[in-house]
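STRUCTURE REQUEST FORM
Protein name: Gamma-glutamylaminecyclotransferase
Source organism: Herpetotheres cachinnans
Requested output: structure tokens
Priority: standard
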Amino acid sequence: MARVFVYGTLKKGQPNYKHMINTAKGLAKFQGRGRTVEKYPLVIAGKYNIPYMLNIPGTGHRVAGEIYSVDDQMLQFLDEFEGCPDMYQRTLMQIEVVEWEGKGGAGEAQASAEGIMECFVYSTTTYPPEWVSLPYHDSYDSSGKHGLSYVLRESR
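Status: completed
Returned output:
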């Protein structure tokens, strides 16, 4: 099982969460909530209002999201879903655990002892330069005050 940190449309209550609970795509078990240890720019960009974490450590905000434990099948699905490695790149990042629900195993001990764990995160280094000038968010909600509603793939 791998740990994945999601900050956008795959979170609970967001438009693509349905994929995280679709066991035909693999297993994803919610472990808790966290935020990046380093600051990153989280922007909403493109004509479909997609959230992107730009891989520019030290710029922006500590980004909030959810930590999942996923099997190989789900990780492969997420790679395809996220257009990895062209649109997003899956990299390991330090995530501070804010609230832990995961039970048992080394992860729980690691999370409670240190409060920080490594998770795979889909961020991007392949973006138009003007995205750096977009507003930075510390957390994403498709129907947030920003007014930039995400456009589902099936509606594009």
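Reviewer notes: The chain has one domain: 2-101+111-135. Strands lie at 2-6, 28-36, 42-45, 50-53, 64-70, 89-100, 116-123.
Form closed.
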